[in-house]
Amino acid sequence: MPAWLKSIAQWWNNWVGDKEMENSIRRHLDQAGYHGLGAKITNVRLVAIQRPGWLQIYRFEVSARVRKDERMDDTPESPPQTVEQFGLVLHDFRKSLTDVRLFEDVEQRRALFRQWAEGLIQLRGAEGLG
What pLDDT score does 21 carry? Predict the structure, then answer.
């Protein structure tokens, strides 16, 4: 039984919960040279919000394979290259705007978060970016 509960907790932890946002992330990955449909998106968390909720900022991590035509080593026998990226999503429901950004470094993500989240209600602690 504990293994079952652990798998449910992991599923819940990695659940995006918003199909439109998930599709936006996957489209952005495709445009950035990764396999967006096969990417593993994890730890999606709401980290800042502006009242009454129209403007939201989410953080996430993603593990995605680099497309073969984007790899430096383009030999047929080279193994697929997987990269770990850190991301932010700015979602403005009033304007139907979704801005997805990917970073190789957590500090780069944190710097953009500080800029985007100024004046917003921010989640603090382990789940936030503060």
Answer: 87
Who contacts 71 (Cβ-Cβ below 8 Å, separation ≥6)? 78, 81
Q: What angle do CA 30, 14, 125 make, to 5 degrees?
A: 110
CA-based nearest residue to 52, from 124, 120, 130: 120
pLDDT at position 32: 93
Confidence of residue 71 (pLDDT cuts 50, 70, 90): low
Give the number of other Cβ atoms within 10 Å of residue 67's Cβ: 16
Domain ranges of the chain: 2-122
Across 21-43, b (16+ Cβ under 10 Å) vs e yields bbebbbebbeeeebbbeebebee
pLDDT bucket at 2, cuts 50 / 70 / 90: confident
Instruction: Check if the beta carbon of residue 57 is closer than 8 Å to that of residue 117.
Output: yes
Partners of 59 in the β-ladder: 45, 88
